[in-house]
Amino acid sequence: MKIALFTETFLPKVDGIVTRLTKTVQHLVAAGDEVLIFCPEGAPETYMGARVVGVPAMPLPLYPELKLALPRPMVSEALESFGPDLVHVVNPAVLGLGGIWLAKTKGYPLVASYHTHLPKYLEHYGLGMLEPLLWELLKAAHNQAQLNLCTSTAMVAELSEKGIQHTALWQRGVDTELFRPELRSQAMRDRLLGGRSDTGQLLLYIGRLSAEKQIERIRPVLDALPDARLALVGDGPYRQQLETLFAGSAAHFVGYLAGDELASAYASADAFLFPSSTETLGLVLLEAMAAGCPVVGANRGGIPDIVSDGVNGCLYEPDGPDGGAGSLAAATDRLLGDASQREQLRRNARQEAERWGWAGATEQLRSYYRQVLSQRPTPALTV
Questions:
Q1: From edge to edge, which strands make up the β-sheet containing 251-255?
Q2: Could you read off the pLDDT of 98-138 as tens digits, one per residue?
Q3: Cα torsion at 174, 177, 178, 179 (round to 10°)?
C-alpha cells in the first residue's frame, strides 16, 4: 500500500504521538508499504525508509513547542506525485485539515485518528468556554473520514457520544525490548535523585511539562510523604512555573532523556506518577510498566484500559475540591507502603506490557487500511 500520513507533530519533537508514529512507520515500511509523511518543518528528509515533506510552520502562541504548518501548493503537488492509495490524518488541526481537503477533493480514501484530547486541554489554558465549539469543529473534520481510530475504549465511547462517526479502537503498543526491568541502575538512580539521599521512595514523572498534564498535583504528595523523592524528566512551556511550585521540596528537574537512558530512568524508580486526567491513552504508562516500574494514574480517559487498580498499578480519583491531590497521595502511599505488593505490581505490569507490541498494533492498522480500501466509492465532501 501507498500511505500518505499528515501529522501536526513529528521529529525532532518527542512525545507519545511521535513515538507511536515513528514505530508505526517503521513497521509499515518493514511490511512493504510505501509511506510519505507531511509534517511541520524541522524533521529529517527521510525516516526508516519513508520520505518526509517538511511544511513551513510557526509556533503556536500558547504552546511554542507545537508548530502550526499551513497547507500550501507544494503539499498538493507532493501528494499528487506520490499517488497514495490512502490518506491517514493524525489529530487534524491545521495541516491535517489540508490533508482532509486534499483527500476528499482528489478522491483518496481517508482515515483519521484521535490522539490528543484537545477539548479537555482548553480549561487548563483558561479557554474552557470554547469546548462546545471545538467539539463541533472536531466533529466536522473527523466525519469526513471513512474511519476514525482512537487509542482507548474510553475515547471510542466519548467520540461516538459527541457525534463522531465510524470510530474504532487502534490498539496500544510499547517497545518491550527497549523498556525492560534489567536496565535498573544505581548510577541512573543517583542521577534522578539529584544529590538527595536515597530513602527507597523515588517517584518519577516523565513527559511534557505543560499545564494540561496537571503535574502540580504531585506537590501535595511530597508534602504528605516526607521520605519521598521526585524526579521530573522532560521539558515544556510550564517548566518555570513548576520550578517555582516545587521550590523547597525534594523534586529534581532532570530535563530530556532518550533511548537507553530514558528506559533506565523508568527501571530505576520505585513508582511512576502520572497525574493527568486528560489522556486518550498515556503511552508513558505503558513504557513504565514495560520497565517494571509500578504506576499511579488517574481513573479517567484511556488510563483504566492500561492500569488495573491493585493488580498492575494503582488508580486515583482526580475529582474533588482538592483536584484529586489527596487521592493521588493516598494511592502513592498505598503503592510504596508494602514492598512485597510493589514487587508483585512490578511483575504484573511487565506481563501486561508484553501483550502489546508495535508489530501487532501496526498489523491491526494495516487491516483497517485494507478495510477502508475495500469501500467504494469515496464519499463526497460533507459539512
A1: 251-255, 229-233, 202-206, 271-274, 295-298, 314-316
A2: 999 999 999 999 999 998 777 666 676 677 788 888 889 99
A3: 60
Could you tell me if 302 and 278 are in contact, meaning their C-beta atoms sit under 8 angstroms apart?
A: no
Cell of 67: 508548530
Domains of the chain: 2-173+357-373 (3.40.50.2000), 181-353 (3.40.50.2000)
The stretches of 94-195 forming alpha helices (DSSP H) are: 95-106, 118-121, 131-142, 153-161, 186-193
Does residue 42 have a pLDDT over 90?
yes
DSSP state of 307: P
Among candidate residues 61, 58, 49, 45, the one with its CA nearest the CA of residue 25: 49
Strand partners, 253: 232
Kindly report the pTM of this predicted structure: 0.80
Q: Tell me the average pLDDT across 305-319.
A: 94
Q: Which residues pair with 109 in a beta bridge?
A: none
What's the rounded Cα separation, in Å, for the pair 158 and 286? Answer: 22
Count how many residues are written for the chain: 383
Cβ burial of 182 (10 Å; 0-12, 13-18, 19+) is exposed
User: Would you give the DSSP letter of residue 373?
Assistant: H
Q: Look up residue 174 and give its amino acid.
A: V
> For the chain, percent helix, then strand, then coil, each to nearest 5?
45, 20, 35
pLDDT band at 379 (very low <50, low <70, confident <90, very high): low
- The SS3 assignment for 327 reads helix
> pLDDT-derived band of residue 62, with 50, 70 and 90 as boundaries?
low
> Residue 128 is placed in which grid cell?
474552557
CA 271 to CA 286: how far, in whole Å?
13
Q: Is the peptide bond before 220 cis (omega within 30 degrees of 0)?
A: no
Region for residue 207 given its phi and psi (left: phi exceeds 0; alpha: psi -120 to 50; beta: otherwise):
left
Residue 140 clears pLDDT 90, i.e. is over it: yes
> Between β-strands 63-69 and 57-60, what pairing exists: parallel, antiparallel or unpaired?
antiparallel
